[in-house]
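Here is an idea for our session: we take a single protein and study its fold together. Once you have written the record down, we can walk along the chain together.
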Amino acid sequence: MSVYHDSINIVSKGENDIIDITKDIQKIVSNSGLKEGLCVVFVPGSTATLSTMEYEDGLKHDVPNALEKIAPKNQEYQHHLTWHDNNGRSHVKATLIGPSLTIPFQNRSILHGTWQQLVFIELDTQSRRRTLIVQLVGE
């Protein structure tokens, strides 16, 4: 078993910016020298998340709308009282979705559905520079 490390740098536009990282992950897997195993992608921070979705304009609109219903902007969050940064909703959304993905790969290709892309979702209220940590374990 071998371990391979890499990273992906992202500059988001701010809240609800959804970025397709599928090709970035595939490139890392292809360049790793590993034929099969697991790829873990992790975003450090508490106001961003990783998920999968069909990356198309309709869903890029629908996902933020659904998240707004779960943690709306016009609600008071205790987090605001502590930090005064007006991003309590960002923390709630990120907590519910989670900071990591695990993707199997075989024959140097990630295994995912035809219409399933790997995405980074910025939930903070402002633009951010993020570094996604990518770790592969395999042979």
About this structure: The domain at 2-138 is CATH 2.60.120.460 (Jelly Rolls).
